[in-house]
Amino acid sequence: MSRPDRLRADARRNHDAILAAARDVVIERGAGAPLDEIARRAGVGIGTLYRRFADRGTLLTAVVRAALEQSRDSAERASAEAGPDGTGLDALARYMHDVLDVRVSAVIPQVLDVDDLDRAAIAEVREQSAAAVERLIGAAHDDGSLPREVSFGDVGTLLVRLSRPLPGPVPAEVDAELAHRHLDLVLAGLRAGAEPLDEKGLSRAELSGLRDDEQS
Q1: How far apart are CA 186 and CA 162, in angstroms?
Q2: 87 and 42: one domain?
Q3: 144 shares its domain with 203
């Protein structure tokens, strides 16, 4: 590998390490977490962090964008890998386990209300992610593997609840194992053919409306 290639590879590693560290620190300490703690966790100097991300808003925007890209890619991959013997719920389950691993639904709620978040920079990928998840849910509705009462809002808010760390000194690996187990418990209940729910859950538009009402 030539020296310019090594430099580019090092820059990419630093970029990815900072985003991963920022995601974890923001989940633990909120959007106002110290940037020097993020740099320390990433294994870089604070100067390197500022060379990659000019300010907190730029960094948080990049964290949200990366999380949404991971959500979109996971949903599209789950849909593409659905085999002829699988169900729509199987594909949706793969997506939900994937995003638990990358903690998408834990970090995004922490930063969406930050004033200097560049919402225009994430609008397109946010729409792509939501649309990909809606297609997964729609396929599961269509083949009968997911009750139609289970909505986009149900899936999204369930992932938010499961993604948040448990209180107390619970080791991270145990917390992650329990999140996946609890998701499997929910999915097992759906697969068991339980009685239909009395009411349909919140649609994507209704879920977005709740946030809009809160901010108005």
Answers
A1: 11
A2: no
A3: yes
